[in-house]
Design a protein that fits this description.
The chain is mostly helical and 290 residues long. It has twelve helices and five strands. The chain is globular and about 60 Å long. The N terminus is likely disordered.
């Protein structure tokens, strides 16, 4: 079903936009091959939308080359087209340029001999305790005594089930670590896990102590150019933090987590200028409160 001819990137290609454009061409062609010319097969479109959890309109726009897919959408498309649920195996089977794009766009590096389960990802969104255990195990081994004290018998039952499914791995000394079953988190899962970790572990009072944490919040009315620069600044900062954490000399016993969010409020857009007073809304009658 998929195109398998070799594809080599010209040396002049930039590592981001051009690779994304080249990968998109393969994705468009593979979608066209499944859905038919001009997106004519509505039954297949509905079936694929239901199986991939991608909206029909989104798939239709992609098939007509009106949109470019995000990396997580690409994974969803090829899981379906290849009938494969393990994202690590998806990476091995997609066209080389698509694999190259996915590896660069996705900040998570895939571990060798690990499987990546969308079912486990759905469980993380539904079960905050499981999500927290997976996040904490990603920072280092976790003692069963801590799990017992924090989550009680429910936490221990999750661990027992996770050991059977290779979500966790047992270590000596009553500890567990990550198992071979992993998760490639979608934006929806990132949002859910970020909110839970902030609620469970964020300590605003520590912001008064230098070197303990960082909290910042700022809102502004921006034009599109400035907004895109905001996105680029945060994306670059996030990549730098991930790269630092992956260095061997960075490893330690501080179980740190970071999340970065830039978004815009869904409020009607208007040209921002000096506010115009409405005298009808500014006249208040004095009341005698004595």
């Amino acid at each position: 079903m998929l195109r398998d001819e070799p594809f080599e990137l010209p040396t002049s290609m930039t590592p981001t936009t051009d690779i994304a454009a080249a990968a998109a061409e393969y994705i468009y062609l593979d979608l066209e091959k499944y859905l038919g010319p001009l997106n004519e097969d509505r039954r297949r479109l509905k079936h694929m939308a239901k199986r991939t959890n991608i909206h029909e309109k989104t798939l239709s726009r992609l098939a007509r080359r009106e949109n470019k897919p995000t990396y997580i959408t690409v994974f969803k498309i090829y899981r379906f087209l290849l009938n494969e649920t393990d994202d690590a195996k998806v990476l091995e089977r997609v066209p080389a340029v698509v694999a190259q794009y996915l590896k660069r766009a996705n900040t998570q590096s895939f571990r060798e001999h690990a499987t990546y389960s969308p079912d486990l990802e759905a469980e993380m969104r539904a079960n905050p305790v499981l999500a927290e255990l997976l996040v904490l195990c990603a920072t280092g081994p976790l003692k069963l005594s801590y799990i017992k004290s924090r989550f009680g018998d429910f936490g221990l039952r999750l661990v027992e089930n996770g050991l059977r499914r290779h979500i966790f791995q047992a270590l000596s000394g009553g500890e567990i670590c990550r198992g071979s079953m992993q998760v490639n988190m979608s934006p929806e899962t990132v949002a859910t896990v970020s909110v839970h970790m902030a609620q469970a572990h964020l300590k605003p009072e520590n912001s008064y102590i230098t070197g303990e944490n960082f909290l910042g919040f700022y809102a502004a009315g921006l034009n599109d150019e400035a907004y895109q620069k905001w996105l680029a600044i945060d994306a670059e900062a996030f990549k730098k933090k991930v790269a630092l954490a992956k260095q061997k000399e960075s490893r330690g016993d501080i179980r740190a987590f970071t999340t970065q969010i830039v978004d815009h409020a869904e409020v009607e857009r208007r040209k921002l200028g000096l506010p115009q007073q409405n005298p009808n809304l500014c006249s208040f009658q004095k009341k005698d409160l004595s």
